[in-house]
Structure formats: C-alpha cells, structure tokens
Specification:
- The protein has 126 residues and is an alpha/beta fold.
- It has a single domain, classed as Glutaredoxin (3-Layer(aba) Sandwich).
- 37% of the residues lie in helices and 22% in strands.
- The longest helix has 15 residues.
- About 8% of the residues have low confidence.
- InterPro entries: BrxC (IPR022551).
- It holds the Pfam family BrxC.
Length: 126
Amino acid sequence: MSFFDKIFGGKNETPDQKTFWKKIESEEDLTKAIEDSFQNRIAIFKHSTSCFISRTVLKNFEKEVENSDQPVNVYYLDLLAYRSVSNKIAADFEIRHESPQLIVIENGKPVNNASHQDISLSQIVS
C-alpha cells in the first residue's frame, strides 16, 4: 500500500476483518440480511473505498461498535465493488443513496438512516 493509499484509502480497502461485520456481496446476501431483520434489527453500512471521509466515518463507527457492550448485527457493503446491490437498496427502500451511509432495518423495513458524520451506533440501538 502506498503512502497516499494509507492516507486517502486504497482501491482494495476493506474493513480490517472486524469480527462483527457481515459482508454483502450479492443480491442473495442482501436478501439474507433482510430476512435476518425479521429476527433482529440490522444495519447496512454502505462504504466508498475511494473516499477519505467514508473511511474516517467507517473507522469511527468500528470503534463505537468495539467499545460497546450492545450486540449489533451490522452488514458491510463496498458500494464501489457492488454498485448494483447499492442501487437495489436505494430503490427498494426508497432512500436516496449517500456515501457513507448507514441504513437500519427492522422487519424488512428501514427504520432509520444516516450519512456522513451523523452515522452512529445510537441509530441501531436506540
């Protein structure tokens, strides 16, 4: 990884294998996540791997999750690699696409969403 990739985020950047992330890499993964929302409230974090702001928000959110004793079901979507899935989320839930973005889903329906610095663990556990 080059110096600039470390500062601004590399093209192949993914979360640092945090154990709490469940990845969405296909429409089937999205369907499973939505099905999971009928058992537990879930959140989908849409992340742009080429954006410094998105990387910063992601890191801050990960720290919040790691420092919390609240169990959460969080899904990670690399929206550049899986643009069609990101577009499907925006269309199906009628939520304008933003990046970074956190969409909270319960019983198959969005109950909260936030973008940029408004993203916080409190959107999921409140």
